[in-house]
Amino acid sequence: MSATINCKQFAEYFGTPICGKMNPAYVFEVEGTPYAIEEFYLDDLQTLFPYRFLHLDDPGISEEMYNHAISLIQSFDEMEAEKKAGMTSSRRGSVLVFLPGLHEISYMQEALAKMVHKRLQIYPLHSTVTLEEQNGVFLFPVPGYRKVILSTNIAESSVTVPDVKYVIDFCLVRHMVCDQETNYQSLQLTWASKTNCNQRRGRAGRVSKGYCYRLVTKEFWRNEIPDYMIPEMLLAPLTTIMLKVKLLDMGDPRSILSTALSPPNLGDIVRTVLQLKEMGALSAKNDGRGHDGELTFLGRVLAHLPVDLYLGKLIVLGHIFGCLDECLIIGQSDEFDWGKENFIQIKRIREVAELYDDLKKRVSFFNMHVPESIQSLDYTSTQRQKFILQVVIAGAHYPNYFVQGEIDEDLASRDLNGFNPRTTVMLRNLPPYSFLYYKQLQSLFRLCGQVKAISFESTRAYVEFYRTSQGAGVLPEVSLALLLAQQSAPLELPVFSIEQIEICAGKNIKVVYVLFLCRVNVDFQSQSVCPVELVSRAIDPDKLPPNPLFVVNITEVVDVGHFWGFRADEASLEKQRHLTAEINSCTLHPVTVSLYPNLLCLAPYSEISEQNMYYRAKILHMRGNTVEVFFLDFGNSAIVACSSLRELPSDILAHPFQAQEFQVIGMHPSAKSIILGNQWSSQARERFITLVKSRSLIVSLYSILHGVNRVQLLINTETTHTTVVDIMVEDEHAVKAEESFDSKQNHEALMSLYKDMVEGTYVPNSASSSWKDRKKEEKQLIDNLLAHFSKSRPSQSKTKARCPPFSIISI
């Protein structure tokens, strides 16, 4: 191991006062005798490739500089051939490329891997690579191949590879920098110092003449590259140093730190003292000394723990709240083989285990012990433990935590235009007539999940996913789509010009303008593309019960306040009996298509001591030779064999589904329930199931939101007349809650509709013949446009689009 130091700084630090002056210590220089190393800069490489060099303001590696480095590696064969008079040696000199980080190494490795004909053996060298990969760096390459090592500054002084002949240096480094305002550390890309670069140059020339190529200009090297790096004490936070100084009990920290080789600024010391007081490591009582404080018990513990101070405080609070019993155990004689088979780096696991054991020993000195026996936790205890850990994490990082603000439901409702935010994402600033590209949009979102429908309106599109579970929360597909929108490149759509579309429309040019403003709905299940009204009735009277107060037979409970069932009035029960008889009197045929989620079919179901009867169903999940199906007329689910499924005839499919989804209004989980169950505790679930499961109860319809009936659930017996909400609140499982903005709006429209129906003033929304003709004309034009443009390719450049709801999509 070798390193370069600032001899002048050390000599002055250890100077001796003589005659009132500080004479620096004498420096003895012992020169080594390495092979000669030639240095080259970008100015010297103009014959190989032209360059455009970026300046100091934005340190980084452009694609052009990557290409220059690759071209330089390719040119080494020609250089070696010229020097050996055309005779190529079987031993090609190894190349060491210094890059600032893992991302740059991966990019360079991927680019070099494409050059198969150049016969390169590429080795990344980084702190995260496995031991096997590190050992490969020291091996001789296959005869005829050139070894290329892509390394961070780990190869600057810690690792020496003897056969390196060429060094390519981008003169960049990443180092820890502490933000002055937040006091948090981050890795920042900066120019390396001349000292570091000279150290890198010394990696070549160990066994023969070496060559160092610095990818900066000579002028930039002389004027902009610093001679030395800023000392770590002036960049890193002083919290750990301050605690070590306080342990020495040698007085004012300012006096002690002022004697350091590179003393920190006074302002940084004062800021560090305030931070330590804020987290409780130093006492607030200081007798008027704002730059000092007494070391507390927490401070003494933190000073002895080799971890970040916030993590140290997390450990102490974990002991206080009784959650210090997390351990990591790995101990078998064949652990290396086990790790190799399971692609786990045993070295990393051992480091974690060793750190855990070290921390456990250190905290035991302060009478904090991990329990010897760990009790198995049930669901409630596990949720309680999770909540305690959240409290501990928030307390350890105080005041650096956030509280989620209230959601503006009115604004969200307007943005999504009435679509369900739990199943839908929105695209903005799409090109005109974007319904022509619905297949491209479907394929773009295929990575996220199965798209159910897309509604196009002007320059917006609403992408709705199939619900893959019976829960009422946000779909994972929606979360994934939003995550991809934040992390991925903009979505790209090849589009047609407006002139092409208008020419194709011909005489129907006015209808084309109407299509730009109206809503076009694409249903992927029925494979239909149809225009719809922008202003239409949100509630279909034909699907409403005659009275908002009706009886429901509850068949399946999804969660507290969320269940499936069917109307239990005589007319609805008669429909079910008639439909069941019709299905089972037909000749049923096995399903011929490949099974997939959301496929509609007929599935068998039978109660105990009853023969199998077939009912309409939808596939929820595939499970090998079995599938989980949801019965569309009853609301319950079951697991059946794939071979037992039957095709669903179109005439039977035409009947409306009888099962309905319900949610109880007016309650939210109580704090107790949230603590014990994330949302609803197991006791709350058991209590709700006891109240409603497999029972016929009276419901009062409040609103219909996104196809879900939001109701009050009434329990009327000879002795009690109450609601499920009142019982859950009384048992402290729930608290009263106000309905959402959309639900209130729908409630007003629903009650107005029922009032009109009772008073006989309701007028059906029957469309006029002219309106029907216009919609028919629009539908015909949509079909013609889709048929025409499906045969041709867009000539316009690609349009970029981004997932909502956060950023406006640039075109």
Automatic annotation (TrEMBL):
Residues 594-655 form the Tudor domain. SUPFAM superfamilies: P-loop containing nucleoside triphosphate hydrolases, Tudor/PWWP/MBT. The keyword Nucleotide-binding applies. This is RNA helicase. It holds the Pfam family TUDOR. CDD domains: SF2_C_RHA. The lineage of its organism: Eukaryota, Metazoa, Chordata, Craniata, Vertebrata. Residues 71-249 form the Helicase C-terminal domain.
